[in-house]
Amino acid sequence: MGSTVIRNGTIVTADLTYEADLLIEGGRIAAIGKGLAGDETLDATGCYVMPGGIDPHTHLEMPFMGTHSTDDFGSGTRAALAGGTTMVVDFALPSPGQSLLDALKVWHNKSGQAACDYSYHMAITWWDRQVFDEMEAVVRDHGITTFKHFMAYKGALMVNDDELFASFRRCAELGAIPMVHAENGDVVAELQAKLLAEGNTGPEAHAYSRPSSVEGEATNRAIMIADMAGVPLYVVHVSCEEAHEAIRRAKMNGKRVWGEPLIQHLILDEGEYAHPDWDHAARRVMSPPFRDKKHQDSLWAGLASGTLSVVATDHCAFTTEQKRNGVGDFTKIPNGTGGLEDRMPLLWTHGVNTGRITMNEFVAVTSTNSAKILGCYPKKGAILVGADADIVVWDPQKEKAITASMQASAIDYNVFEGQRVKGLPRYVLSRGHVSLRDGALDAHEGHGAFVARESQGPVNRALSSWKALTAPRPVERSGIPASGV
Amino acid sequence: MGSTVIRNGTIVTADLTYEADLLIEGGRIAAIGKGLAGDETLDATGCYVMPGGIDPHTHLEMPFMGTHSTDDFGSGTRAALAGGTTMVVDFALPSPGQSLLDALKVWHNKSGQAACDYSYHMAITWWDRQVFDEMEAVVRDHGITTFKHFMAYKGALMVNDDELFASFRRCAELGAIPMVHAENGDVVAELQAKLLAEGNTGPEAHAYSRPSSVEGEATNRAIMIADMAGVPLYVVHVSCEEAHEAIRRAKMNGKRVWGEPLIQHLILDEGEYAHPDWDHAARRVMSPPFRDKKHQDSLWAGLASGTLSVVATDHCAFTTEQKRNGVGDFTKIPNGTGGLEDRMPLLWTHGVNTGRITMNEFVAVTSTNSAKILGCYPKKGAILVGADADIVVWDPQKEKAITASMQASAIDYNVFEGQRVKGLPRYVLSRGHVSLRDGALDAHEGHGAFVARESQGPVNRALSSWKALTAPRPVERSGIPASGV
Amino acid sequence: MGSTVIRNGTIVTADLTYEADLLIEGGRIAAIGKGLAGDETLDATGCYVMPGGIDPHTHLEMPFMGTHSTDDFGSGTRAALAGGTTMVVDFALPSPGQSLLDALKVWHNKSGQAACDYSYHMAITWWDRQVFDEMEAVVRDHGITTFKHFMAYKGALMVNDDELFASFRRCAELGAIPMVHAENGDVVAELQAKLLAEGNTGPEAHAYSRPSSVEGEATNRAIMIADMAGVPLYVVHVSCEEAHEAIRRAKMNGKRVWGEPLIQHLILDEGEYAHPDWDHAARRVMSPPFRDKKHQDSLWAGLASGTLSVVATDHCAFTTEQKRNGVGDFTKIPNGTGGLEDRMPLLWTHGVNTGRITMNEFVAVTSTNSAKILGCYPKKGAILVGADADIVVWDPQKEKAITASMQASAIDYNVFEGQRVKGLPRYVLSRGHVSLRDGALDAHEGHGAFVARESQGPVNRALSSWKALTAPRPVERSGIPASGV
Amino acid sequence: MGSTVIRNGTIVTADLTYEADLLIEGGRIAAIGKGLAGDETLDATGCYVMPGGIDPHTHLEMPFMGTHSTDDFGSGTRAALAGGTTMVVDFALPSPGQSLLDALKVWHNKSGQAACDYSYHMAITWWDRQVFDEMEAVVRDHGITTFKHFMAYKGALMVNDDELFASFRRCAELGAIPMVHAENGDVVAELQAKLLAEGNTGPEAHAYSRPSSVEGEATNRAIMIADMAGVPLYVVHVSCEEAHEAIRRAKMNGKRVWGEPLIQHLILDEGEYAHPDWDHAARRVMSPPFRDKKHQDSLWAGLASGTLSVVATDHCAFTTEQKRNGVGDFTKIPNGTGGLEDRMPLLWTHGVNTGRITMNEFVAVTSTNSAKILGCYPKKGAILVGADADIVVWDPQKEKAITASMQASAIDYNVFEGQRVKGLPRYVLSRGHVSLRDGALDAHEGHGAFVARESQGPVNRALSSWKALTAPRPVERSGIPASGV
Ligand SMILES: [Zn+2]
Ligand SMILES: [Zn+2]
Ligand SMILES: [Zn+2]
Ligand SMILES: [Zn+2]
Ligand SMILES: [Zn+2]
Ligand SMILES: [Zn+2]
Ligand SMILES: [Zn+2]
Ligand SMILES: [Zn+2]
C-alpha cells in the first residue's frame, strides 16, 4: 500500500476544527499539515475529515434459539464501513458453564470475515471460580477489558445481584470495566407471562413487558452495586429518562458511570409498535423497546451535556422470516434491529444539522469517547500522527433516503426505511484502505484486525485511590466488651 | 367502668386545635363539648388532649437465633403506655414453610399479655400456592391487611423480586398493602463477608455493611415492583435521603407510596458506632443503622412536607447480654433497639418545640396517619364521638431526662440515655382505662385487644381504577403476519 | 329558616367516608347521625354529602383597561353555586398609590351582590410606609390574612424583589401568608415586544410570551425570598412542571409552600391556541397559558401526592367582545377564563372517576385544604357539628355536556364547551339555604356574607419558631481587630 | 530566544498521557516526540508536562472604594507563574456611564506590567444604546468575547433582569458568551441591613447575608434568561449545591451552561468565619462566602462528572489593612481573597492525589476547558505543535507548606496558610520563557501579551441553529376574528 493524502478538507475532532491535509502511510496517519502530497490523493473539498466511527455495541452472527443473527462479521462490517464506521465492538457470549477462553475462540473464528477492525466485550453469563480466574487471562492476555452482564433474560443470560457484585469486584481488581444490560429480568418475566395470559400476544406487548421504569430500576441497582464494588460502570443502551436520571444522580454524587444511548432510541418512538402491520412492529422488537418523545428529549440532552457518552446501535439483525418465529407469542420474536450503516448519517442529520449537538460532539459520541472509555485511544478515535488511519471524509451536502434495497446489511428491511438524511461519507478509510469511495464499497473480507485494549485506565485508577482512601476502618477499642451506657 | 371526663384541656387532632372537654363511656368517646361531667374527672388544664399514639412497627417477643427480643407484649405495651402510645402493630413472622395461619396463632398466644390494643402485619417470608391462598383468609377472616416483605436478611427472611411481584399482585387483588424492609440483601451479605475478611468485626462494621445507598436501591426497586403490580406500597424504617428521594420521585410520578421514619433515625446519628465502648455501639445496632445529619434533615423535611407519613420505633429490644452474642463478629449482634416509651416525648421535643412540625402534624405522624393508612381510622387515631377512647393528655411543660433506670422496658439500657425531653403525658387512656396517671402506670396485662383492620381502602381502590384504565391493550391487526416495510 | 335534614347519603370528608344524615339549623350543622329529622328533608340516596367547594382564586368584576371582567359577584357566585362551590375568595386590588383600606371598601361594595359566602385576599401592588402600616389593620381589623403579589404585569401590578422581601417580612410579623403570581415580568415584557416585532401578533403568541420556564423561575425566586423572610408561601395558578419542581424542591428542604393548580391547566392544553379560529384561541388567553400534557401529568401527580394543595379557577371572565380588544395585538387581549361552575364536575370526572385521586382527596383539594390554609377551617370546609352548612349533595351518576348556553356565567362561551362530565350536584346549600335543587338555582343576591379569617395559623407559628431558633448569631470575639493568620 | 527542549517527561493533556519530549522554538511548541534536542534542555524526569494553567477569573488592581486590590498585573502574574498558571483572564469594569472602550484602555494600561499572557472579560455594568453598540466593537475589534453581569452589588455594579435579557440577546447576536455573578442583589441588600440592625456586624455576618439559596436563585434566573435569549451561559464562582443543581437541571434539559467553582470553595469551609480572630475571618470575606462540606462535595462531584467545567480563583487580594476598613460594619470589608499561586498545587493535592479527579481532568479544569470555552484553544490550553509554549513541568513528589512569608502575592497573609501540598511546578514556561525554575521566579514585567479570542464558537452556533429551528411561528388563520366556540 502506497501513501495516501486527503486534501483540502476540514479536520474535525472531538476538540478541534481546522483546515489541514492528512498523509497516510502504512495504515497510519503520518502527517497532518498544509500542502501534503502522496501516491494517491483523495479530494476532501467541502468535507469534514473525522475519525472513523466506532460502534461500541454490536452482535454479529449472534447465536439465538438455534439460529444466528443474520448480519455476520462480513455483512456487518460492510454495513459499518458503508456508513462511516471503521470499528465495531462485539460481545463474546459464553454459554452457561462454557469457558470464557473457549467463547473467545468461537468469536475469533467468526470475526475472520471482518472488513474493518473490531474488538470484543466478554459477557459474564455464569459465575464460579473458573470464571473468576479466566477473567484475568481475558484482560491480560487478550486485551479484552470490558465485561458485560445481563440483568434481564431470566433463565438464560441473566445474573443475580450477588454475581454482579462478585464480578464487579473482580473487574475492580483487574482494572476492567463492567457493563450492564439493565432491565429487571424477574419483573420482565412476570409481565411477559401476565400479558400472554391476558391475550396480549402481539409485538406491541414486547414493549408493554419492558416499561421504562423496569430499565430505570435495574440501572439504579447496577450503579449501586458498582459503587459498592469500587469500579466504574458502563450502561449499554440507555433508552429512557429513568435510566438517564439514575446515571445523572450517580454522577452528581461523584460516581463514575457512562451511558450509551442507541441511534434507534434517539430517532424512533413507541408508535412503531402500534403499526397495523405485524411485520412492521415485529421488525422493531428490541430490548429495551422504543420509548416516547419525552425519553428522546432526555437522551439528546444527555449527549449535549455529557451525562451520556456514546451513541451505539446494538446492531443485531434478524430477517423478517426470523422475526416471524414470534407470531402468536411476542416472547419468541428475536430481539434486535440493525443500524450500523445508518447510525452516523442519522445522528448528523438529527443532531448536527439541527444544532442539538456540535460537530465536535458528534465526533466525540460516535468515535472518540468510545476509544477513550474502552481503552484504545488514540490508536482509534483520533486524528493524530501515529493513530490508525481509520478515517471518514464526510460530505455535509450529500443526501439520500434510507432504504433496505440499497443497504449492505444482509436483511430484507430497514427500520429507518424512507428517512431522509443529509450528511454522508464521501470516503471511508480503514487503516488506510479506502473502503468506501463515493458510495461504492471496496471492503475486503479479512482486512479487519482485532484491537487489543488497555486496562487500568485513568478513571479506574482514580476511583480505586478514592475508595482506598475512604474505606471502612475499625474503631479502636480497649476492652471488648466494655461496660457503659 | 363508669364514665370519665377530661376537663379544661385543648383538643389537638391532625387537623384542628380547640378547647373542649371529652366524655368517655364504655371505652369510647361519648361526647365532645364544653362543661361535660362524668363519674371521674381528669384535669387537663394546660394540656393538649390528643389521640393516643400508634406505633405501626414493633417486634415484641420476636424469635431470634434461639432466643427472643426481651420486651414481650407485656413489658412492650407497658413501655408504650408510659410514653403515650396506646396501640402497637407487630409483625407475625411465619418461618419458611410455616402456614400464615399457624404463625397468626403463635402471635395471638403472645399478645395475650398486652396492656394496650394491638394489631399485626403478616410477613411473607416464603412463597408458594399455600401462601397465595392463605393471604385471602388473613385479610378477610382476620382483618390483617398489610403484608411485610424483607428484601434483606439473605438466607433467612429475604424474598426475591419475582416473589415480591407475585405477592404484591396478590395484595392488589385483595385490596391489601405490601410493606418492605428495603435493603439489598445480596449486597449486604457480600459486604458483611468482605468486612469480616478485612478484620472489620466490631459493631461499627454493621453500619459499614449497610450503607444508605443499599437502602435507597432497594426502596427504588420495591417502588417499581409495586407500580408494576398496581398496588400502593408502605416502606418501613426509611432512614436516609436516598430512600426518601426514591419515594419523592415515585410520588412526583403519581405513584402511591408511604414512608415511615423511626424516631431513632430522626435523633441519633452514626457517630454512636464510633463510641470506644463496645457495648455502647452494639446496643445501637439495628437495620438500617443510624445515619449522618444530612439524612436526619431529609427525614424531618419529609415529615413537614408529607413525603413521609408516620414515625415508628421498630421496637425490638435486646439486653446487653444478648447483644454480646456478637462480640468478635458483628453479624451476630441481634439487630434492634427500643424506643416505645420515648418516641412521642422525643418527637415533641425535637419537632414541636423547635417548630420543625406543628402540633397537628405531630398527631398526624404519631397516630392518625397510621390509623388511616392501616385501615382502622377513625376507631383509632381520632378524637371523634364513637372513636375508641385511646387518649393522651399531654403536658407540654413536663420535663425529664431519659434513663434506663426508670423505664418500663425490660432491658438494661436505653439508647437515648441522658437526653432531656420537654413534653410528656399526664394521663394515658386505653379504651377509657386510665393506664398512666402522672407518671404512674396502671397497665393491666390482657387489657389490650386485637384490632381487625379494613382492606380495600380508598387509595387501593383509586389506584386499581387507574391501572385498569391504563392497562396495555392489544393492537388491532387484520392479518398476522402481514407484509410491509 | 327552619331545620333541614339531608337523608340517606354518604358523608365524604377529606378524611372519612361514612353513612349518616345531617341536620341543619340556623345555617349551621346541628347534628350528624342516623335517623335525623327536620322541617325539610333532602334525599341524598346514592349521593355523597360533602363540604361545599371553596374557590380560593377568583376575579369578579375586576377592573381592566377601562372595563371590568364580566362576571361580577352576582353572576359569579351563581355560577359557583351551580357547580357546587359555596365560597369564593376574590382579590382586592388597590391601584398604585391607593390605600389598602380604600380598596377594601370598593370590594365590599361590589360583593353586596354575592349569593354565597366570600372572602378577599389583599394585593400588594405598591410599597411604602403606608402600605406597611395598613397591612396590620387589614389582618387584625378585617380578617384578611393573605397578601397577593404580582411578579408579572410589569408597569402595572408588578412588584420587585426588594418589595417582595419587605412585604413578606411584614407578613411574617403579622402571621399572614404571602401569595404570588409567579412569572418573570421583565422577561415576559421583553418577549412580548420581541414577538410583536417579529409579527407574532395572534393569541398563540400570548403563550409563546409566557413559557413555563418563566413561571418556574419566578416560583423559585419567590420561594427563596419567602424563606429568607421566614414566612410560608402560597403560589397561585401553578401550571407547569418547572414551578411544581421548585415547590417540591423547597418542600424537600423543609420549606413551607403551598401550590394551587387551576382546573383549566389540569384539563386543557396548549393545542387550544393553535385553533384556526381567532376567537377560540383568544377566549383561552390567560396567564399562565395552557401547557402541554407533560405539565398536566405533573399537576395531577401533585394533587395525589400532596405537593400541590388546592384546585382553583382564577375565574376572570371576559366576553368575546372584550377579547376582541386584542385583535392584531395579543398583549391587548384581556387575560382570563371562566371555570367556577365547572371546576368540581370536571375534577370529579377526570380525577375521581379515573382513579387519579380519591373522593377524600377531591374534598381536600376543592374545599378543606383551602379552608385550612386560608384560616377559616372548620367554619368552612368541614362536615362537623357547628360548621357552616355549606354543603354539596353530589350525585355521581348525574351526567351532562358542558355548554355555554346553559351556564350561569354571564359570558357568551365556555372554554370547556362540549366536554362531558359525570358527577354533578343534586343539592347545594349555602349556610343552610338550598341554593341549587336538581339543576335549578335558587340563589339570592346578597345572601352571601364576608368571611373573616384567622392569622397566625399553626404553620406560621411553627416556622417562626424554627427561624428564631436558627437565626444568625454574632461570633464572640475578644479584641477587634486582633492579629493572627 | 533559542530553542528549548523538555526531556524525559510524561506529557499529560486533557485527553492523553504519554511519554515524549517537547521542542520549543519562537515561543511555540515546534515538535513533540522522542529524543528531541535544542539549545537548552530542561529535565522533566519523573514529571508531568502539562499545558500551563489558565485562571479564567482574576481582579488585578481592581478599583474599590477609593483604593485598589493590592495584587496588580505585576505581582498577580508573578503569583500565577509561581504556581504554574501562565494565563489570567481579568475583568474590565466600566463605571456606570463609562464607555466600554474607555474601560478597555484603562485595563490595557494596567496590564502592561503582566509577566504572563492575559485576556479580559468585559463587564456590563449599565445599559443603553451606546453599550449595545460598543459590544460589537469589543468583540470584533478587540477579541473580547465574554461579557460579565453582576446580579448582586445593588446600587453599584448590579443590573436588572430586563438589562440582562437585552445584553444576553446582544451576546447571542455577536456569538459572545454572557457570564454572571449570580446572587440576588436585592435580597443581599435587605439581609445586610437586617443583620446590621440586629447587631450582626462582624465578618461572619457577611456569610449570613449571602446564603447559598440566594446564589442558587440567581443562578437559576440567569439560566432562564439566557435560555430565553438563546445564548450559552457561563456562571462564575459556583460555590454551592443550589447553584450547581440549577446548572445540572438546565443541562438535563439540553441547555448550554458552564459552571466555574473556585479553589477556595473546594477546600475551605464556613467554619473560617467563626474564628475568634477578626482578621482571620475578615481576610476570608469574599462573595460568595465559603460554604459547608455538603457544598464542597457537590463541587468536587461536578468536576469529576463534567457538570462543572473549570476551576478559578477570583483572585482579588486585599491587605489586612484594607480588610480592616470593615471593622464594625461587615459590609465595608473589601470582598476578595487570593489564590493564584496556590490553585494548582491545592487542586492536585486534594483532587489528583486522592483520586477524586484524574490527571487528565486536572488539566481540563485548570487549563484546557477554559481555553475552549473562552475561544483561545488550541493557542492556549494545549500541548500541540503550533500552540503557545505555555507549559508547566509538574513534579508530583515536590512538597511544601503554603505560607504568606514565601508567596509572590503582595499581601501580608494567605488564606491557605499552613496547608501542605504535594505536587508543585519544577519549571513554568510562558511562551517559551522559563519563568519559574525549581522555585526561583524569573518573571519579566511586560513579558505578558494580550490574547484576543474568537467569538462564534461551536456551542454558540449550534444553539443558535436550534433556537431558530424551534422559534415561535404564527398560526395561520383565515379571518380574524372569526366566530366559533
Ligand atoms: Zn442488551
Ligand atoms: Zn446488545
Ligand atoms: Zn426491618
Ligand atoms: Zn422491623
Ligand atoms: Zn395571576
Ligand atoms: Zn388571578
Ligand atoms: Zn463575583
Ligand atoms: Zn470576580
TrEMBL record, chains A, B, C, D:
All copies of the Amidohydrolase-related domain together span 48-420
This protein's UniProt keywords: Hydrolase, Metal-binding, Zinc
Catalysed reaction equations from the record: 5,6-dihydrouracil + H2O = 3-(carbamoylamino)propanoate + H(+)
The entry lists its GO molecular-function terms as:
dihydropyrimidinase activity; metal ion binding
EC number(s) from the headed UniProt entry: 3.5.2.2
A GO CC term assigned to this protein in UniProt: cytosol
Q: What family does the entry list?
A: Belongs to the metallo-dependent hydrolases superfamily. Hydantoinase/dihydropyrimidinase family.
The molecule here is called D-hydantoinase/dihydropyrimidinase
Major enzyme class: hydrolase
Spell out the post-translational modification annotation for this entry: Carbamylation allows a single lysine to coordinate two divalent metal cations.
